[in-house]
Amino acid sequence: MTYSIELFIVTAIYGSLAASAHVLPAINPTATPLWPPTGVALALMLLRGYRIWPAILVGAVAPYLITDRSLLEFVAAGIGTLLAALAGTWLIGRWSNGCQTFATPSGVAKFAGVSFAPTAMISSFSALAGSIFVNEPSFPDSVAAGLTWWLADAAAILVIAPVIVLWAMMPLRISSRWDLLESIAVIALAGLIGIVAYSPLIGSDLVSDDLNVALPHRSLLGFLALLPLIWTGLRGNRCTAATAALIFTGMAVWGFAFGNDPFPKTDPNGALLSLLVLSITVSAPSLALAAAIATRHTAEAHLLSVQDQLNGQLERNASALDSIRRHFQTLIEGVVDYAIFALDREGHVTSWNSTAQKIIGYTSEEIIGKHFGIFYRPDERRAGSPTHALETAIERGKYDVEGWRIRKNGTPFFITGSVSSSHDDSGNLIGFISILRDATERRDAEEKLVQAREQLAMSQKMEAIGKLTGGIAHDFNNLLMIIGGSAQIFTRLLDPKLPKAIEAIQTAAKRGESLTRQLLTFSRHQHLSPTVVDLNASIKNMRTMIESSLRGNIVYNENVGEGVASVKVDLAELELAIVNIAVNARDAMPSGGTFTLSVHAVTANQETGGDRRAKAFFAIALGDTGTGIPPNLLSKMFDPFFTTKEVGKGTGLGLSQVYGFAHQAGGTVTADSKVGQGTTITIYLPSCADEQITSKELAAARTRARQPQRQTVLVVDDSPEVADVTSSLFEHLGYDTIYRDSAEAALKLLDAGTKIDLVFSDIVMPGTIDGVGLAREVRSRYPGLPIALTTGYSDAAKAAPPSLKILRKPFDTDALRDFIHDLAPPRPPRSSGAPMTSNTTEASGRN
């Protein structure tokens, strides 16, 4: 309903205006240079949007009902006016902020440009096209009429549209009575000047002809209109400026219709040009000036508002600053460990806290105003150290201080701290803040700090070497998998009396497996299965194994407490680490000696020298009374392949395995040795007192149910050779196997509905999905299907969830059988020992 009423009102207003062109010949488009409907249509569409286009079109065509003009002319004029208004509204809205285009001078200029092209151009030439179809004028007449209508439409838009838009957008509340009176006066004055300069009343019966005689060149008085227009422009009143320009232009159009000076009928082209220039001159500049001044007034008002806000903020900040200053003074006085004092730009002391007095000895009355160089030694003052400290603080913002200073009584003391430059909001230097701490007692800790740095450097070196060894072991494990698996196949297929070389192959594969295990443990990329164990009980259970690693002339002493010392480790790796150390101790005591193992609780900041912030650890100290290690070799003892033994008596990986195991378990390892007195290696393992100890008996009591039917295993590996060996091991255990060389191929097989009871996949594979990704997909799509992974080494295994089982390469039949027993079903029937042939072509072919 509202929309219909709006269309009706716009149609009535616009139609009346268009019809007046035929009721009043003075504004007939064929006789006047100004055509108001185009400007009105553009203004209405700017105010109300595209929704009023039906009213514009109907209002433009409606005068056809009261005239005898051709319908084609009205339709062409109506469509042209509508298209012009649509184009002008779209361009102004996109380019010049829509209705707010008169808010800035640039907006006024853009509006003027849009008015000339395409708004006026579309309107005038569309009307001209309708006139040409009806009247068929000559080409020169058509060109002249088109140019005339174009300029008439442009001038009318510039004069009429701003008035409608600005008055429609002006708030109903009047700012002041004087502003209203000023606007009325300016508009009246502009109209009066227009009447005197151009009105046909002067010289008619209404006004005495004597006035016309007295003002033979009265049209020159039209220039006086610039005064009220400039005045209202300087006042920033855009509505008044646009209205005054419209009134004044209306008077000029009135004079033009009667041919008054300066619009003589004898020269219609010159009269037309004069009127168009006059219309544009009085409308656009005054409106642009008013917009500029209004923008300035708005900016000034905003700045005043911001200034008031800033003044209020400054007052609040000043109050807050005073409060902060008092709090700061209270704070620095409450600091009992640091001397805090302020310096001016030259380095003179300006503030002094009580701790500074306590540490350095000067009272605030004695030190304030003196240069802080008084704290330096004489040789440092001569070398310019105080000045250098200030210059560095200015350049870098902060200068770290560490060195000896002089107290008031002349005694030296060692300090650490900083001198920081202080700047205001503009970046200007206002002084310095010095914070110092008496670190004399900490000087004794410098040796430990140096040692910690050396350990850090060694750790970084070990990390780099570990990455290299981990990569080598990855590929080496695949080779060992093929060698070991093939040896087992040979054992089953060949006559046992024939190849003693098979036993050598298996022995070499086992040794290679042990070697790569040590490499991976050192590089901390070994896949571990940590459990929470009682460290004391576990070490006591290792006594027989440790004693067997030593010789009879070596006495083994064990100092292990009775309390529960729980740690989370891979017990097999812990046993290997202790055995490696025991073997090294045995070789270091060829004539016998004593090997001692002790366990005691420590904290990180007591003995490890690490960055573990007092976390509880258990230290396993393993000491011997052997030959010891020279200091120049002590830092290399954890390096892989480094050994002091004779060729063939050691791989150089024993202590490397210890190093990797300790760090992968979350701890560290240290070594202390003196030539001729022996070596002590200490392994630090983090305490897990809040976790429940895993029961080996409970883990060993898991049910191993058997399945009466043969199960099918999907083997996924990018290496056909490794897949062949793996499939043979599965078949020996009583499984059928199907082989796929990628995760994508495996998923396609599962999607095809093939019955699979277990998916066994390598982790590292080409393609977009690795083994861990395949496990996620299988668990998502087939929740009941078990899946297990295998790898020699892979960083991708770190992304595997804890519930996903991973079997380390290389593995043999026994390891594979135990691994499968730990998984969820399927469980195969126990193998008879001979390889079994697959029942399906696909399984036996491992395609």
Secondary structure blueprint with pairings:
Blueprint: H1 2-23, H2 36-48, H3 53-61, H4 71-95, H5 105-135, H6 139-169, H7 177-198, H8 209-214, H9 226-234, H10 238-258, H11 268-334, E1 338-343, E2 349-352, H12 354-360, H13 364-367, H14 378-383, H15 385-396, E3 398-406, E4 412-423, E5 429-438, H16 446-493, H17 500-523, E6 531-534, H18 535-541, H19 543-549, E7 554-559, E8 566-569, H20 571-588, E9 593-603, H21 604-608, E10 616-624, H22 631-634, H23 654-664, E11 668-674, E12 678-686, H24 696-700, E13 711-716, H25 720-732, E14 735-740, H26 743-751, E15 758-762, H27 771-781, E16 787-791, E17 806-808, H28 813-821, H29 841-845
Parallel strand pairs: 7-9, 13-14, 13-15, 15-16, 16-17
Antiparallel strand pairs: 1-2, 1-5, 3-4, 4-5, 6-8, 9-10, 10-12, 11-12
Helix pairs in contact: 1-2, 1-3, 2-4, 2-6, 3-4, 4-5, 5-6, 5-11, 6-10, 6-11, 7-9, 7-10, 9-10, 9-11, 10-11, 16-17, 16-25, 17-23, 20-23, 26-27
Domain PAC: 399-451
Main location: membrane
Domain Response regulatory: 712-824
